[in-house]
Amino acid sequence: xxxxxxxxxxxxxxxxxxxxxxxxxxxxxxxxxxxxxxxxxxxxxxxxxxxxxxxxxxxxxxxxxxxxxxxxxxxxxxxxxxxxxxxxxxxxxxxxxxxxxxxxxxxxxxxxxxxxxxxxxxxxxxxxxxxxxxxxxxxxxxxxxxxxxxxxxxxxxxxxxxxxxxxxxxxxxxxxx
Length: 177
Description:
- The chain is α+β, with helices and mostly antiparallel strands.
- The chain is built from one helix and twelve strands; from the N terminus they run αββββββββββββ.
- The chain has one helix at about 20-50, and strands spanning about 60-65, 75-80, 80-85, 85-90, 90-100, 105, 120, 130, 135-140, 145, 155-160, 165-170.
């Protein structure tokens, strides 16, 4: 038998993995696996509030319909609130009254000037008005600003159901033209 030699061809060399390469690949893979194991829960934690479905109604039962008069009455209520990962039940307030036609409305007690809390009929200089003690802003019964503040008081969405008044989210005042 005759062996043919081919010029310019190199013999095929079988490459074997060295110990150093084996350890490098093994440790690199194990490190990547551990990094992914730590990163995935952090990403899930950050994204969870975004992908979690919203629950429940935005309306809160606050007062019996029969107890609402034409004079604004302050009612306090708690509303469950989820802010990212923090859940709380802070207390809110509203001024609820009936207008001349008997329609129930609720105003936010937050002054539009600097965010202080207004109260009904507390200053003798401004009878039958909402008054803010911080900078003497005052509003009429419908929440229309009379001095200092640049906008009327906000109002709550109101829903009447089963003899009860339910308050929803705060919206811009629709009573003042």
